[in-house]
Amino acid sequence: MADGHDFEATFRDVYPRLLSLGILRTGRLEVARDLAQETMLRAHDRWGELAGYDAPAMWCRVVMTNLLVDHYRLTASERSAVDRLSRQTVDEERRLLDSDATSSLKRWNDLVRPLPDRQRLAVTLYYADDLSVGQIANLLDTSRGSVKAMLFKARRTLRSRVEARERTEGDTDG
Question: Is 85 inside any structural domain?
C-alpha cells in the first residue's frame, strides 16, 4: 500500500491537468475546480487500490471526464441558469487568471463553444490534454473511428470559423 506522499505527488501532478481540462471544457473556473476536487477526493478515497495501478492519472482523467459529461446532463433550465450566472462572474474569473492565459482561454472557448458536446470534449482532450485517439476512445467508451470522425468534423467546423473570422477582420482592416 502506498503512503500519503505518493498520493500527494500524484495530486501535485494530476490536479493542475484536471483543472485545465475542466476550464477548457466548461469555460468556468469554479465548476472546473469543483469537478477536479471531486475527482481527487474520489482518488484519495480509493488510493489503496489506485496506488497499485500503472497509471492512476488515467483513472483520474476517466473520472473527470465522466463528471464533465454528468455536468452537461443538466436540464435545459438549469443550464440556462448556470449560463446566466457564469456571465455575471466571468469578469471576476478573468481578473483571477493572468491576462495571457485569459486571452488564450477566451479564444479557445469562443472557437469550441459552438461545437457539439462530444466534439468539443474530443478536441479538448486531443489538443489541450494531448491525449491520443486511442486514449480518447477509451475515455469516451467509443471506437477509434468515432473519435477520428468527431475530430474531423470539429476541425472542419473550426477551420471554417477561423477563416470566416479572418475574412471579417480583413474587411474591417481595409
Answer: yes
Domain extent, residue 40, equals 1-98
Other Cβ atoms closer than 10 A to 19: 19
- The pTM of this model reads 0.52
Domain with 173 in it: what CATH number? 1.10.10.10
Please indicate whether residue 107 or residue 55 has the higher confidence score (pLDDT).
55
Q: What is the pLDDT of residues 2-41, one digit of tens each?
A: 445 589 999 999 999 999 999 888 888 888 999 999 999 9
Residue 144: C-alpha distances to residues 65, 125, 158 (Å): 17, 14, 21
Pair (50, 121) in one structural domain? no
What's the confidence (pLDDT) of residue 1? 37
The verdict on residue 106 lying in a domain is no
For residue 38, the domain's CATH number is 1.10.1740
Domain count, the chain: 2
Q: How far is CA 62 from CA 77, 104, 141, 146, in A?
A: 27, 25, 10, 18
Distances (CA, A) of 172 to 15, 28, 100, 162: 42, 31, 24, 15
Instruction: For residues 25 and 94, state if they share a domain.
Output: yes
| The residue to which cell 462572474 is assigned | 89
pLDDT score of 164? 82
Torsion of CA 28, 34, 39, 41, to 10 degrees: 160
